[in-house]
Every structure is written in C-alpha cells, then in structure tokens.
C-alpha cells in the first residue's frame, strides 16, 4: 500500500522572498481583550457521532459567556477551502492539514475555535497538536458506537456505503483510529446534547480557559 504521507521539500517550494511578518497586536493582546484564553477544541469521531451538534451546542454556551469563538465544520469547509479534495487517505490528510493551519490562525487571534471533523488518523490529529503552543489543542473524542451512528445515519451515508455507492467511508471500509488519551471524552449515546456540551464547558472552566 502506498504511503499517503508524502514527504515534501517545503523549503525548496517557498520563495526566498517570503518572510514572516510580525503583527503589531500580539496573541496576548488579543486574549486580554477577549477576556479568555485561546484554544482549539478538536471534535473527532465517526460520521453521525454528534460532532457538529455538540460543537455548535458548545459554541452557543461560549457565546452566552461572551467568549469570542468560531466553528469550523467538516462539511462547510469542503464547500470552499477544501472543495478540491476527495476522500482518499491522501486527501483526508491534506484536509486536516489545512484545517489545522486555519485553526492555528484563529487561536493566534485569541479565539476559542471548535473544529468538527472525523479526522480519522491519530497522526494527523497529533500533527495539528504539535503545531500549537502547549495547552492550546484540546482533543474532544465524540465516542459513539458505530451501530448507534449507523442507526442515526442523518445524511444516509452509511446506507450508501453499505450498498457500495460510497467508497473509503470511515467505519465501513476506511479505518477510524480512536484517540489514545483525549482531553475530553464525550459519549453522546449516554448523555443529552446539552449534557455533552456542558462537559466541555466544565473542562474549560476547570482548566482556566474561561
């Protein structure tokens, strides 16, 4: 099997004229103005697990706390920024790489940004973590059994995957690698959406993000 992780000579592809421009307003300035710490809440789980639903419930609660936030949703991003990508392993990796870079920019602006992506590979999630300062990457594992996700099937994707109409579908014919040690472990088949969202808010409060 071909390795989807392609080594690129990044330095060779960059122009020598590209220089990092230091912003006049620092990350600390943004956080101070916003009144809270910045972080990337990385919601990961199977299709139908409740990632987007919980992420948006969390975002509403944060809004009610007057926090500065944004939600990057997997489907929404594929309408624009990642509209050129498919669902091969290579394209999935590039999808997460781009989202990681955008998330880093939001966090640098002092926001609490939530990302709702299947992001099936441990290596990709850890790559995003490594790009952020210590404590800014919060992995939120939406741990919902495959059978439950398939019974929900909100977009009818599992039915199509079982019928062979969709290839490389996570959980059916493409692997999902569960988080090893997530900061937050959410089980949507055992709690209400409100309770799941509150679990995330509680973590943020207990760890002084809010």
UniProtKB/TrEMBL annotation:
<keyword id="KW-0597">Phosphoprotein</keyword>
<dbReference type="InterPro" id="IPR002891">
    <property type="entry name" value="APS"/>
</dbReference>
<keyword id="KW-0808">Transferase</keyword>
<feature type="active site" description="Phosphoserine intermediate">
    <location>
        <position position="119"/>
    </location>
</feature>
<comment type="similarity">
    <text>Belongs to the APS kinase family.</text>
</comment>
<keyword id="KW-0067">ATP-binding</keyword>
<dbReference type="InterPro" id="IPR059117">
    <property type="entry name" value="APS_kinase_dom"/>
</dbReference>
<dbReference type="InterPro" id="IPR027417">
    <property type="entry name" value="P-loop_NTPase"/>
</dbReference>
<comment type="pathway">
    <text>Sulfur metabolism; hydrogen sulfide biosynthesis; sulfite from sulfate: step 2/3.</text>
</comment>
<keyword id="KW-0547">Nucleotide-binding</keyword>
<keyword id="KW-0418">Kinase</keyword>
<dbReference type="GO" id="GO:0004020">
    <property type="term" value="F:adenylylsulfate kinase activity"/>
</dbReference>
<protein>
    <recommendedName>
        <fullName>Adenylyl-sulfate kinase</fullName>
        <ecNumber>2.7.1.25</ecNumber>
    </recommendedName>
</protein>
<dbReference type="Pfam" id="PF01583">
    <property type="entry name" value="APS_kinase"/>
</dbReference>
<feature type="binding site">
    <location>
        <begin position="45"/>
        <end position="52"/>
    </location>
    <ligand>
        <name>ATP</name>
    </ligand>
</feature>
<feature type="domain" description="APS kinase">
    <location>
        <begin position="38"/>
        <end position="187"/>
    </location>
</feature>
<comment type="function">
    <text>Catalyzes the synthesis of activated sulfate.</text>
</comment>
């Amino acid at each position: 099997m071909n390795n989807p992780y392609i080594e690129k000579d990044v330095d060779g592809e960059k122009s020598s004229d590209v220089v990092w421009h230091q912003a006049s307003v620092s990350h600390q300035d943004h956080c101070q103005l916003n009144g809270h710490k910045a972080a990337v809440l990385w919601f990961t789980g199977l299709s139908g697990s409740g990632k987007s639903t919980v992420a948006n419930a969390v975002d509403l609660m944060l809004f009610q706390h007057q926090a500065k936030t944004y939600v990057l949703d997997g489907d929404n991003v594929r309408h624009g920024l990642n509209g050129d990508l498919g669902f091969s392993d290579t394209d999935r990796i590039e999808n997460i790489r781009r989202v990681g870079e955008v998330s880093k920019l939001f966090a640098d602006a002092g926001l609490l940004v939530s990302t709702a992506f299947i992001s099936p590979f441990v290596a990709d999630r850890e790559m995003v973590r490594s790009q952020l300062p210590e404590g800014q990457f919060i992995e939120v594992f939406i741990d919902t059994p495959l059978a439950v996700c398939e019974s929900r099937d909100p977009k009818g994707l599992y039915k199509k995957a079982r019928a062979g109409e969709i290839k490389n579908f996570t959980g059916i014919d493409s692997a999902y690698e569960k988080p090893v040690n997530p900061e937050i472990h959410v089980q949507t088949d055992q709690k209400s959406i409100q309770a799941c969202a509150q679990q995330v808010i509680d973590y943020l409060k207990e760890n002084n993000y809010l």
